[in-house]
Structure formats: C-alpha cells, structure tokens
Amino acid sequence: MIKLNLHKTYRARKDYVSFHFQANLKENQIVGIYGKSGVGKSTLLRMMSGLSEPDEGELAIGNQQWYNSSNKLNLKAQKRSVGFLFQDYALFPNMTVRKNIFYGVEQEQDKSFIQRLIKISELEDILNKYPSELSGGQQQRVALVRALARKPRILLLDEPLSALDEELRDKLQNEILEVKKILDITIIFISHSKTEVLKLADEILVLEDRKVKFQGTPLEWFKKTSKPQKGVIVEVGDNNKTFKILVNGELVEVELPNPSIFEK
Amino acid sequence: MNWTPFYITFKLALITSLVLFIISIPLAYWLAYSKNKFKFIVEALVSMPIVLPPSVLGFYLLIALGNDGFIGGTVKSIFDVNLAFTFTGLIIGSVIYSLPFMVQPIQNGFEALPSSLKEASYTLGKNRWTTLTKVLLPCIKPALLTGTVLSFAHTIGEFGVVLMIGGNLEETRVASIAIYDSVNRMDYDSAYTYSFILLLFSFVILSLVYLVTKKGFNAFGKK
Amino acid sequence: MPVPDEKKFIFVVYQLFKIKPFVRILIICLTFLFFSCSEADKPEKVTVAVAANLQFAMKEIALEFEKKHHIKVEVSSGSSGTLTTQIKHGAPFDLFVSANLRYPNKLFKDGMASKKPKTYAFGSLIMWSTENQDFTDGIESLKSSSFLKIAVANSETAPYGIAALEALETANLLTTLDKKLVYGESVGQVNQYVKSGAVDVGLTSKSVLFSLPESERGSWGEIDPSLYTPIEQGIVMLKQGEVNNLENATLFYDFMFSDQVKEILKTYGYDIK
C-alpha cells in the first residue's frame, strides 16, 4: 500500500499556489495520473521520487516511511527505491547506452533481468552507441531500461508518451505492459490522454484544482464524466469484449464488461 | 637575451591555473545550484577583479600580504615565510586576479546543463560527488577548457598587480614587467623581443582554443 | 565499498585529463616546473635596489664586482621613492643605493637599517634631447618655443624630480613652464620619453648620456648647480642584508667606496667629493 498525503505551496509572483494530494494506492499495479496542465502532476511525481520536498505531509511505501514532516523525515532520492523516466530522457551524453543502463547498478546485483529488458526493448545492437546517435524512440527505451535496472519498487514516468508519434506510442505502451509482466513493480505515469489511461492504467488518479479529484478505474471516471459519443467500431476482438473504436478521430481500444454501453 | 622572465611567467600562469581549477569547481557548483538568498554577494565579489583597476587590487593585496598585513603577518608568524615580493605572493595575487575567468565559464557550463541530468543520477542512487565527477564535469569539458585557457592567458598578461606585490625583483620579474623594465632602461632590443614573443604566444593559444572548441568560443562559455 | 576521498580525487583529476595530448603537455609542464624549481640552491648573490639614475653605472659596477668576487649582483631599479615603499613593505633587498639621503634616512629611522646612510656620489641634473637643440642659455633655454613638452621625474618619488622642480622654481620658470611639464615615474621613464620622442626635452641625470653611444647622445645642457640643492646620493645596508647576507652585502657596500667604483662613477658624470 502506498500512502500519500502531501502538501506543497509555491510562490508564483504575488500569489501562492497550494497543492494537496492525498491517496492510498495499491502496489504492483499501473497507476495513471490524469489531469490538465499545471494541475500538479509533475509536482506530485517529483515529490514521490524525492526530487522535490513537500512542505508538509507523509509518504509511505508499504512499511517504509519515505517522508514524514512530523518526524522531520525526508529520505533522499538516492535512498528511495524509485526509477524515474524524465520527459527529456536525461541520458548521460558522455556515456554509451550500456554505461547509461548500468550506471546505477551495484556490483553485487543480479543483472540477468536487465538483459531481458534490453532484449524486450530491442537495444542489443546499440549498446555501444552514444545517446546523440540514437533516435528519439531509442533514447526513450534506453531511459526506461536504465530506470528499471535497479529493480526499483516504483517506476515513475513523466509524460512518457506525449512526444511520440502513434507507432512509437503503441510500441512503448506495449513495452510498459511487458515490463509489468516480468517485474513486481508499481508503475505510475502521467498522461493527459484518455486513450493512454484507458489502455494502460489499472487505476487512475484524476487531478483537478491541484487536488486528487477521483481515484478509481479509468472506465469509472470516463463513465462519470464523458458525454455519450458516437463512434465507429473498427475492430472486434476475439472474445467479443475488446473493441477498437474510432471516436472523434481517436482510435480507442476498450475492454467492456457490458458492450451495450456504446451505441453502434 | 634573458629567458628567465618567460620561465617565471609560464610557471606563474600554470600554477595559478591549476590552483584556480581546483578551487573554482566547488565555487562554481555552489553558485550554479545554490538557492541561497545572498548568492548575489558572492557573485559580485567573484566578478570584482574584472572591474577593479589592477593597481587597486594590487594595492590592497600589498597591504594584506605585507609583513604587517592581515594575511602576510599571520603567515610570517606561523611559518616564518614572506609573502610580499615573493613568487608565492604573486600566486596568491594572480589567483584572485584571474578568479572570475575560471569561475564564470564553469558556472555557465553547469547552468547550461539540464537539471534532469543530475536528478537522473540521484534517482539512480548516486550521491552528489559521484554525480559531479561522473556526469556533470565530463559534460562540461568545453567550459572547463575555456576557463583554464582564459585564466592562463589572463595571468600571462598580468602587470599592475604583479608590479605592486612583486616589485621588479629577479624572482618576480614576469615577462610583462621585464618589458616595462627594459623600456625604462632604454634597452629596446629586449623590449621588442619580449613583447613579440608574448604576442605570438597569446595568438597561438587562442587560435588553438578556437580550433578545438569547434562550436565557437564566446568569452564566458555561453553558446 | 566506499572509496577514500583522496583516491576519488586523483581518479577525478585523471578522468578529466584523459584527453591524451593534454596529459603529454601536462607532463612536460610539470617536469619543466620541477627543474626550474630545483635551481633553489642558488649561487652566492647580493640583491641591490638601485635608483633609476644609477642603473647605467650600476651595470658596469656589478660586472666588476662579479668579476672580482664571483658573487652575483641582482639589480632592481626604480625611482628611489617607489623602492623605499617596497622596502618598507618587506621587499627583500640587501642594499639600497638611492638618489638622495632622505629616503635611506627614513628607512634608517624606521629601523630598517642599523647604520646611518653614507654618501657615495653627487648627481648632476641636465637637460637632454635627442634632437639638436640649443641649450646655450642654460635653464632659460627651456622657454624656447621649440620645447612643447618637458619631461621631469615625479617629485613625490624621485630625488631628481625634486631637484628639477627646485631648479625651475629658483629660476622663476615654474609657473611659466608648468603647462609644458610631463611627469615620469622615475628618471628612467623620463629618459624613455625623451628617447622615444614623446617629449622634446627632459630634465634628467647626467648619467644617461654615458649609457648611449656617442652618436645617439643628442644634445644636452647642464643646469646651473646653484639652482638646486646638491643631489647627495646615499647608500645604506638594509636589515635583511645584515641578517641574511652580511658577508656579501658588506663586500658590496665596501666596494661602492673603492677607487675602482669612484672612477666608474666619474665616467658617468657623477661628482665624487
């Protein structure tokens, strides 16, 4: 169980901007953080990773306390078991792909699963290249594997899919799902795309007005908030439960408990 | 032709640059990353040698390094070593005189790096020292080079400060002072030779730097 | 296992200097440094602070001394006032050969010398130009319109400057010529101004004439000695010389009063009384 209850206040010119996030999340699932720009998605992620310090509150992962303002406890980022995928990937330009990936890895660590990840991400052939020689998609996959190399308890992804074209986006989404299959890990990602959260997230936190507005499955949220829209079913899955639907120019893949929710 | 002034000049510039390299990295790091309210005071102090007339700097240094001075007196009483009019005194003076020329390029180098770079290192479990040495410094090599070359070249050209605190002694007669001295003695042959060699040397060094930093070279390392 | 910080530091420095050509240059520099440092076992020497006007004669004097005693003479010249300030701030000279008595006396009073200064020569003030000028009227010649700029040494720091201004004042020319005056830091600088043509004429020490071959001497005129207080030039042995280098310093001090030196000084236009 991930317990978080975090407050942070920024000074923005003459105003004060206050964020307050409270949620209890189950571990070992994929959580999407969904919301508009400026609502605090990155702030939340940074506070969870230890890169930003909250003003007040508590953050506990299972029985480990990572932050507790009443005890003046603030575990440094280095000591938290997190992997962080930055929006600009933050690959070290002075190191090869291999050196980047193994940068955080200690001598005694088990490295076999890293090899698996490298294979899944199709990075075997570019291990000796430098980040400047890689395409955007390759860079991101390297950053992903690097973030996972230390087998962190939580993987944080800061808008991982927004800069990618559709083909790469699909690829990365599948990779994330693959990763989830082979590692016991909680994956938390930021998105402002409905499609993504529907496809990837087991649970979402919807942020609005700098607070957690909703916690639950993506479908619940969209059922609550979406107006019914006309869509065209493009493809039907084998079990008659998965549909690919074209709605407003967006191709959405959905798994339905009850197909009658959508009109044909 | 007496070559000693060149030995002394070169020795001074080399030692000064080495010392500056070592003390400027932590200082530039602090200036680049600290959020201290009073950072501006330190920044101003570091930049002062650019703006101050060398004779002013030299004058205050002479007072501080002299045997009754704040620094000189203490050193004299503990180590029985003179600072004013010695080569060691010149090093201290040159380090202060060329400080901004090492600190500012390195500071700019650090500031130009995306913050996600060091944050990534932290999330990968590395402390600040490892991050500095394995990630940050390797990524700002051009800035380090710029700083070193600038402070080296700047020290070569030093005159006013050296004249004040080193006088015109054999031990402290750097090339620029030797030129001044030759002219005063109407030994124009030496003056011409010394001047030409210094000019040539500065030109060669700068050309090399332009050649090596392919992306172009702006006085303080900004792109 | 954590690595001790010294090893880390050396590793860092090594990492940074992995650029191979740099390492080569660095090694060369360090070796070079080493060698120039280890000439620390210096030969016997004596350091002398010399007033600018005497630097020409001193060249010869130093040569003779080195021949005779095989002790190196290190000369630093400048205006007497500047040298005095440096000495007060700890400049490590064994002896001070000044252009007057006042500065050495000051040092004596301040305890920087244990014996009173002694006069070794009397200096002469002249007008000097590199062009063919007319000095037949003595100091009055300076009124001529062919002299647009007149260089004198700074009276704050140079005894010859004091004498020059005194002479002009006594001859009632100071106010008239004031606007034409250009100040040099020492007679050395005055000489430089004259030689380079920056000024038309300079009031300087007679010794400058004998530092140049006859063809380059230009023209000059003596300034009536009655117009200025005699330039009594004094020498003093400094504390640093007494304490650290007594034998060599004494040798040089005595040498300055030898007949040999008296002859040299005379050839440079000084008066030995």
State the shape of chain C. Answer: globular
Give the overall pLDDT of chain A as a whole number. Answer: 85
Percentage of residues in helical conformation of chain A: 25-40%
Unreliably modeled segments of chain A: 260-264
Please count the helical segments of chain C: 10
Largest interface: B-C, 28 and 31 residues
Query: Termini of chain C, distance in Å?
Result: 83 Å
Strand content range of chain C? 15-25%
Strand order of the largest sheet of chain C: 2-1-3-10-4
Physical arrangement of strands within the biggest beta sheet of chain A = 7-8-9-3-10-11
Q: What is the tally of helical segments of chain A?
A: 7
Radius of gyration of chain A (Å): 19 Å
Gyration radius of chain C, in Å: 24 Å
Low-confidence stretches of chain C: none
CATH topology of one domain in chain C: D-Maltodextrin-Binding Protein, domain 2
H and E string of chain A: EEEHEEEEHHHEHEHEEHEEE
Number-wise, the strands of chain C total 10
The count of DSSP E runs of length 2 or more, i.e. the number of strands of chain A, is 14
Superfamily (CATH H level) name of one domain in chain C: Periplasmic binding protein-like II
Key phrases:
heterotrimer, A: 264 residues, alpha/beta, 6-stranded mixed β-sheet, 5-stranded antiparallel β-sheet, 7 helices, 14 strands, 26% helix, disordered C terminus, B: 223 residues, mainly alpha, MetI-like fold, 11 helices
Describe this structure in words.
The complex is a heterotrimer of chains A (264), B (223) and C (273). Chain A is of the alpha/beta class. Chain A has helices spanning 41-49, 97-102, 112-120, 136-148, 166-182, 194-200, 218-225, and strands at 2-12, 15-25, 30-35, 56-61, 64-68, 73-74, 82-85, 154-157, 186-191, 203-208, 211-216, 232-236, 242-247, 250-255. Chain A has a domain at 228-264. Chain A contains seven helices and 14 strands. The longest helix of chain A is centred in the middle third of the chain and has 17 residues, at 166-182. Chain B has one domain: MetI-like fold (Orthogonal Bundle). In chain B, 76% of the residues lie in helices and 0% in strands. Chain B has helices at residues 4-33, 39-51, 54-65, 70-79, 87-112, 115-123, 128-139, 141-156, 160-166, 175-184, 188-212. Chain B is globular. Among the domains of chain C are: 5-37; 123-227, 3-Layer(aba) Sandwich (D-Maltodextrin-Binding Protein, domain 2). Chain C has helices spanning 5-16, 20-37, 55-69, 80-88, 102-109, 159-170, 174-177, 187-196, 239-255, 259-267, and strands spanning 45-51, 72-78, 95-97, 118-123, 125-129, 150-153, 181-184, 201-205, 219-222, 231-237. Chain C has a five-stranded mixed sheet with strand order 2-1-3-10-4, with helices on both faces. In chain C, strands 7-6-8-5-9 form a five-stranded mixed sheet, sandwiched between helices. Chains B and C meet through helix 1, helix 7 and helix 10 of B and helix 1, helix 2, strand 2 and helix 8 of C.
